[in-house]
């Protein structure tokens, strides 16, 4: 049941769930905390926000796992390249999710582990 005034507002909140992952650039673990807070606040008001918030949260948790593994792999020399690649992939996939959400299209993050159903 949607409690938002317009579908546009609903899409905006869904988009903010994806964009809030950029808070990780300022706050440690903000890439997880941002989507978690927005999703928790709005998940009962909109099915779209609930669905997109879960996608954003699952992807950011997955990316954090991959980043920790890459950081460990610095020991054998390939970790730095993986960290750079993961940073770019994260940026690109977030932007793609934002654009698709604003256009009302469904977007599934690649490489995302479905942790929260």
UniProtKB/TrEMBL annotation:
<protein>
    <submittedName>
        <fullName>DUF4870 domain-containing protein</fullName>
    </submittedName>
</protein>
<keyword id="KW-0472">Membrane</keyword>
<keyword id="KW-0812">Transmembrane</keyword>
<feature type="transmembrane region" description="Helical">
    <location>
        <begin position="12"/>
        <end position="38"/>
    </location>
</feature>
<feature type="transmembrane region" description="Helical">
    <location>
        <begin position="65"/>
        <end position="98"/>
    </location>
</feature>
<dbReference type="Pfam" id="PF09685">
    <property type="entry name" value="MamF_MmsF"/>
</dbReference>
<keyword id="KW-1133">Transmembrane helix</keyword>
<dbReference type="InterPro" id="IPR019109">
    <property type="entry name" value="MamF_MmsF"/>
</dbReference>
């Amino acid at each position: 049941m949607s409690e938002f005034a317009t579908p546009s507002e609903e899409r905006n909140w869904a988009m903010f769930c994806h964009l809030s992952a950029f808070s990780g650039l300022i706050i440690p673990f903000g890439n997880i905390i941002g989507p978690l807070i927005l999703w928790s606040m709005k998940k009962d008001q909109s099915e779209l926000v609930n669905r997109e918030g879960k996608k954003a949260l699952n992807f950011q948790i997955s990316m954090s796992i991959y980043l920790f593994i890459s950081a460990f792999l610095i020991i054998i020399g390939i970790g730095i390249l993986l960290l750079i690649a993961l940073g770019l992939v994260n940026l690109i996939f977030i932007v793609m999710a934002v654009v698709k959400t604003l256009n009302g299209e469904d977007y599934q993050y690649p490489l995302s582990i479905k942790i929260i159903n």
